Amino acid sequence: MTSQSGEEDDESRSPDGDRLARGRARLAEITGRSGAEVMAALGEVAPDFARYIFEFGYGDIYSRPGLDLRTRMLATVAGLVALGHARRELEVHIGSALNVGASREEVVEVIMQMALYAGFPAALDALLVAKEVFAARDAAPAPEDAGRSDGT
Amino acid sequence: MTSQSGEEDDESRSPDGDRLARGRARLAEITGRSGAEVMAALGEVAPDFARYIFEFGYGDIYSRPGLDLRTRMLATVAGLVALGHARRELEVHIGSALNVGASREEVVEVIMQMALYAGFPAALDALLVAKEVFAARDAAPAPEDAGRSDGT
Amino acid sequence: MTSQSGEEDDESRSPDGDRLARGRARLAEITGRSGAEVMAALGEVAPDFARYIFEFGYGDIYSRPGLDLRTRMLATVAGLVALGHARRELEVHIGSALNVGASREEVVEVIMQMALYAGFPAALDALLVAKEVFAARDAAPAPEDAGRSDGT
Amino acid sequence: MTSQSGEEDDESRSPDGDRLARGRARLAEITGRSGAEVMAALGEVAPDFARYIFEFGYGDIYSRPGLDLRTRMLATVAGLVALGHARRELEVHIGSALNVGASREEVVEVIMQMALYAGFPAALDALLVAKEVFAARDAAPAPEDAGRSDGT
Amino acid sequence: MTSQSGEEDDESRSPDGDRLARGRARLAEITGRSGAEVMAALGEVAPDFARYIFEFGYGDIYSRPGLDLRTRMLATVAGLVALGHARRELEVHIGSALNVGASREEVVEVIMQMALYAGFPAALDALLVAKEVFAARDAAPAPEDAGRSDGT
Amino acid sequence: MTSQSGEEDDESRSPDGDRLARGRARLAEITGRSGAEVMAALGEVAPDFARYIFEFGYGDIYSRPGLDLRTRMLATVAGLVALGHARRELEVHIGSALNVGASREEVVEVIMQMALYAGFPAALDALLVAKEVFAARDAAPAPEDAGRSDGT
After folding, report:
1. Which ranges of the sequence are coiled-coil (chains A, B, C, D, E, F) (predicted)?
2. Do residues D55 and D79 share a domain?
3. N or C: which end of chain D has fewer CB within 10 A?
């Protein structure tokens, strides 16, 4: 599983152009969304912010070796539940966790566990987001769910 | 690795006495601290709170199957970094993550990743806590570190 | 008023089955909602989470003696305002506070007071939630409001 | 620049009636909303809270000399982004910042910068709020935008 | 008990001088600290901030009728636990709650209950603060504890 | 004042090596600390995190045109006060704000204003940090304070 994240290692100090391209590819791989969608959402308000998401978020952080992507995304779900207010990102990254190999059960376990640290309201709200994400996938399965629809 | 968390499954609706005993054992396994230490810290102020930590925290949540303990503790570290204020718990559970099989590198990766979601100050403060935990372990290695002192 | 919370005292270490039944009854008494509603909201995503809400939340914590229910629910409103993001729970527990004997004026006082500790936006948002809860009760009075509709 | 905030200085310990009038005027100047709108939103739930917003928020704090209003409102935007949950206030005060002389670019810069301190989700959510505020102004320009529509 | 908070009612729109004097008296009554101590802590950095604490915090909010002081201070403890980071204020207001008639047991109940809403770390940290406050009072009893040392 | 932040504009998409060098220079200019100090604090725990602080924090964000540095640092102070838990960063950036031209009075105004949005405890704690920073500067004036010691 670490092979997923290890391959970019020797590029990790590459020039900006590479970070941008690597980040856009990584974002698509993890979230199932294209960089174009992110840029469209931000519109003309802050195009550089989209670039930072690609370059720093996905080109730097999510391209690091040292931790497999499945654990990374489950940790991200945990962090977003603890924040409490990041509903939009939570929805995206519950999907990301599923995209990179976590099961629905694992996502639910991580969220429930956060009740201990961030309280029941944060966990309950996140479980209702997970319920929506799961229902949307059942209604329109993502391609990457195809091979494991019985296992998640 | 999932064998660590799967064994209590058929006890999961057991009576309270079992939850308490199971929780105390689980707490010791994960944190390397005894229930007596937790109770001593709380003193006579709130003995029932210690009981809830054992019963609900460790007897219920951390005894659930469905997610391996290493991932659980890395998710907990992520959540505690995102909270921002839980320094004491963060110190304990960085240790817990190491106790249940996470490497130092993995702990550091999870913390750094939280800079994306909770900001650089939360991540930086947590890295300094990790530095202290690692240094304390180097000075007085926990028994469970013995076999992997070179690898973490 | 303390008689409401004192009667379960000698059951407080009872087996799990009792915690579950006691918690469901307590939840209904406080929130005016049935356990079935809570379970339906969570659906098949996390049925155990509903069980923890019943057992730990209402069977353990809200069944404790030592503090009357009216003060407990006003403290809960205060805590939820301070969290800032728990709109759903705030709406439920503004209702709970009214259900267990707090007046509308007391709920409003607690929320306004939180402006000091959590800032004006958190308090203002919570006052607008209270306004909605009060309006819904005026439109469809809960049975327990019957005897005090003029006084709250 | 300090002339904007300096003129009330010698009234700063004036009686309550003056604080109220000064606060209502200041609120209108900054937010472009009338005190009547604030009171209408709160309705009969908490009229005193509206008074505190006028008296303490605008009559005391926002009437202080020592910092120009443009910087004050950009700092407020920064604080609201960092809070994470204050969407309603953020929308109002992105508008306030524009009303008192900040440019759209400056608002966007402050929000983007908060990604460093409060994380990308808080900043991203705030940028989408800014996008909405800017679009609403383009659709129905505020009078005070008239003279600088090309510069912001 | 409501007589404690009801007496200032008809002064509630009094001039600033009265708010200041009333606030300083109220602060002393509730916290057991003098306004001079608060001002000394702030030193020359922000004397007006001390004035706002007196005038708005204690002269306005804590002088309102409509909720008894004991419930107010227990709600404040709840809110401060939920905030997570307000250790200094929490220490002061655990003392305030005791000063205005809450028992130690009630303070502990409110804190434990917050584990449900803000998580176990926030509640555990707060219990350890309570333990310190109680120990300091045992070592040097406040005068107001004299008459009820057996009852709290 | 905008000349401070405008000069790097045409380098803003430069290769990584430039981002790193630019970021280290910018960090030193703003915080008065060297990159070596930051790296030393992190030690061997997370050297890449220091690199991200330089590259993304200072090389990207704090090298952007569009907002003068004085306003940027006052906005950062506001955001850190609102976070509540970032004491270490707050101390550094109160100093940064002074370094780039903000007066002590302006720093205090921004902090006091945050009482409205994040509550009095967050603002009070931050004022006490400011008091310490100011006292340390009085004891050992930074070179850049030399020319304006009477004015801040």
Report:
1. none
2. no
3. N
Size of interface D-F (CB pairs under 8 A): 108
Cα distances (Å, whole numbers) of residue C37 to C58, C94, C139, E99: 15, 18, 21, 41
Tell me, yes or no, whether E50 lies in a domain. yes
**pLDDT tens, F122-139?**
999 999 999 999 999 999
Query: With an 8 Å Cβ cutoff, are A127 and C49 in contact?
Result: yes
Q: What is the CATH classification number for the domain harbouring E91?
A: 1.20.1290.10
Does the CB of A108 have a partner CB in chain D at under 8 Å? no
The answer to whether residue B6 scores a pLDDT higher than 70 is: no
Structure tokens at F97: 């704000």
- Residues from chain F contacting residue A64 (CB–CB below 8 Å): 48
Q: How far apart are CA C24 and CA C14, in angstroms?
A: 15
What's the pLDDT tens digit per position in B106-143? Answer: 999 999 999 999 999 999 999 999 999 999 999 987 56
Asked if residue C122 and residue C71 are part of one domain, the reply reads yes
Q: At B144, list the tokens.
A: 């469970």
Interface residue E61 vs chain F (CB under 8 A): no
Q: What predicted TM-score, i.e. pTM, was given to this entire model?
A: 0.89
Do D59 and D82 share a domain, yes or no? no
Asked whether residue F80 falls in the same domain as residue F120, the answer is: yes
The Cα-based distances of A10 to A5, A7, A15 in angstroms read: 12, 8, 12
Q: Which residue of A has its CA nearest to E84?
A: A118
Residues A127-150: tens digit of each pLDDT: 999 999 999 999 987 555 544 433
pLDDT digits (tens, 9 = 90+) for B55-112: 999 999 999 999 999 999 999 999 999 999 999 999 999 999 999 999 999 999 999 9
* pLDDT recorded at residue F43: 81
Contact E135, B45 (CB under 8 A): no
What does the DSSP assignment read for chain B? -THHHHTTGGGTT--HHHHHHHHHHHHHHHHS--HHHHHHHHTTT-HHHHHHIIIIIIIIGGG-SSS-HHHHHHHHHHHHHHHSS-HHHHHHHHHHHHHTT--HHHHHHHHHHHHHHH-HHHHHHHHHHHHHHHHHHHHS--GGGGGGTTT-
Task: Provide the 3-class DSSP secondary structure of residue A44.
Answer: coil
CA distance A65 to chain C (A): 32
Number of domains in chain B: 2
Mean pLDDT for all residues in chain E? 86
Task: Tell me the H-state helices in A1-147.
Answer: 3-6, 16-31, 35-42, 47-52, 69-83, 87-99, 104-118, 120-139
Say yes or no: B123 and B88 in one domain: yes
Whole-number Å distance between alpha carbons of C69 and E113: 12
Nearest CA in chain F to A55: F56
Q: A86 contacts in D (CB within 8 Å)?
A: 84, 119, 121-122, 125
Closest CA to D64 of F115, E150, B148: F115
Instruction: Residue B136: give the domain boundaries.
Output: 67-140
The interface predicted TM-score of the complex, written ipTM, equals 0.85
Cα–Cα distances in Å, from A25 out to A17, B103, F150?
12, 28, 55
Question: Domain for residue B145, yes or no?
Answer: no
Residue of A nearest to F15 (CA): A15
Q: Using alpha carbons, select from F47, C113, D129 the residue that is nearest to residue A46.
A: D129
For residue E149, being part of any structural domain is answered with no
